[in-house]
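[Q] Does anyone have a clean structure-token version of this?
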Amino acid sequence: MNSINLALVGQPNCGKSTIFNMLTNIKQHIANYPGVTVDKKEGSYTYKDSKYNVIDLPGTYSFSSYSEEEKITRSYILNKETNIIINTIDASNLRRNLYLTMQLFDMQKPMIIAFNMLDIAKQNGQEINFEKLEKLVNAKVVQTVATKKQGLNELKDSIIEVNNDLISHVSTALFYEKLQPYIDRLKPQLNVDSFELSKHFICIKLFENDEGIKSFVKNNDYNYDEIFDIVQKYKEEFKDIHKISVEQYIVKIRYEKADELVKSCTTKSKTQNKTISEKIDTIILNKFLALPILGLIIFTLYKFSIVYGYDLTNITWPILAWVKYTVVSLFPSEDISSIPYLTQLAIWMMNSIIALLNYIPIFLILFFLIAILEDVGYMPRMAFILDRVFSKFGLHGESTLPLVLSGIFAGGCAVPGVMATKGMNDKRAKIATILTIPLMNCLAKIPFFILIIVTFFKVHMSLMMFMISTITLFIALIISKLLSISVLKAYPNTPFIMELPSYHIPTLRGLLVKVFDRVWLYLKKIVTIVAAVAIVLFVLIQFPGLSQKEKNQYDIQSKAMQDTFYKQTKHSTYFTYVNEKKELKELINFYTQYKYEKMNTKDVTVSKAIDEKFQDKNQLFFLFAKPNKNKEARKINKALKILLNTRKKLLRELKNNKIENSFLGSIGKFFVPVTQYAGFDWKINVAFLSSFAARESSVSTLGALYESNQNNSLGDNHTYSPLSAVAIIIFMALTPPCIATMIMIKIQTNSLKWMLFALFYPIILGLLCAIFIFQMGTIFSLSEIEAMGYFYIFIILITLALGLIPTKKETYV
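[A] Here you go.
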């Protein structure tokens, strides 16, 4: 079977991905291009005994080498075995889209032009004469409405037609009359054999002084010095003769050709003064309404994804808990006074993975709503609205979505936030955004904030939560500004093109494909990595373990616990069934499993089925678990409950001592000489260290450390003061990214250096701020709310001052 390679090329928001989905159906593969973070989407389909491989190249406005997308797209077309280019054009924005088509003509590759979104063009009163247009461009033209699958068969048939005669479908529509003699003289100087049909393109890009092509020629042509000298000579000669630079002439010819095609082949209804999109924008982009509408949209995004999505976790959590229970049950059962290491590892691993899987309902809703905003065309408008503010701090409009996802106010997640920077073109702003995303209020931080606020700030709960939720944004702007004028200053400030495409009605299938792609990437890249890291943390917490003296002490306590059980049950007629350690162990596991399954159901029928299941499993043990009016069995039940409560306390003490003596606990104690100035002890240090795997771990760690001793509770004034609680909150707000976010930072920046920087600078910043608050509060005898209030005002003043420092920024509309 023949195999034909198709490259889908087009500007962003032209419907290119919809055509890709229309062609390939579900036979797709999504990955990243090697060494970069841009999506690589490949698929295939079979039609009339031939197989067609389709690659959906990144959306790009031109081939100017400003962004990764532009470099990847043109490099793929020129270097790979691309048989046919399918150039997708938004018919409702013809002139803008045709500029990319002109550059594709320069490549001199067989091409089909798919005019998409014709329904929107007609709504805007625009008519296109396609017969005339096809003759003028000297390329195959196909009409499509991808959202409705219109033009699918016509496109497939056109691909066959072009493939049968590739050479005749290389367009010669674009001709640089004055420059062509120089191009013809330069071509023989090139010794690059792999380009064949594209030597014309190399010449054009050399005349445009394109750094990417110059680098390619330098690496592949031994004669590059002479070639560059010839190009420079020709450029000077051209300018002397024609009184215009070569670069300006090339751009002029492209735009003139695009204008010629639009004027010759399109007509617009005179009655249509404004397009539908323009009418909507009079409201959406109104200078008084834009920000309130944006705020409402963001609020709705949070409301549906975070609030309702979190409600859905009440449904998914029992399912995940059942999965955990099922997996753990495959490992060695618990002993009376200990849990086998292998089983502990299984429990730890399942807890780590489930903590992330539990967010899937939130991500499903969040990604679905984001996909709607993207496909409708609102995202570029959101960037347009916020660009003016963000640009003062080294960010720009494209930073909006990542920061929103990460939790500008509360309830986001840094992982999808960092993932969302994938499409940013400005490298300086992209790095600045990635490095400030961990400062946002991710959903996993909220339980910790609530724990501290409820314990120490019951009178000022709402005020404290407001200040915590907003101060992180101000600090992020400060950090971004400082980075932009220092370590990121050398990074290129790519022009920010603010395109306002027409509004589109999204398709359900297109939305679901996007959601699936993003959720799958999250699962594949994050969960597997977190699982590996969880093993490392497990070792750090479990080892070196207890001393022999401590083990002996716990053995004595365990024996005393069992002796108490035997003493309380020896007069029962059932004593002979539980007087051996093996039987007691089996009873404990039976009772624990039974209570667990009963706890997760409220349905009477299901509850009855569980009873029948366990009764069939072991009728005698079931009698001890549910004795009803059987007095002899109730003695066993009562003693068993006392034993289980004692066992629970014993295992908790064992766990706490292991943590204190563990490598992680030792590290926590190691930092006390510094952290004590912020009011932290080793236990808080351990909680922060454990939170690197997942923020939720901080709460569970504190619970494990303080639950066993009522007199040493978190709120005890002898342990932490309200002032130290403020310092603790500020440190958590500025704490470094969790493991999952760090891995995603490494993936998106492709740099270990930036990942390590993202790890260490928040630690230093958070510790300095925490020490500052605690020490200033102590020196001036400030209350906790006064200390937080003064610090809040201080941060706002710094933000305003830095905002006055001008930031160089190029903006193109």
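[Q] Thanks! Anything notable?
[A] The first helix runs from residue 16 to 24.
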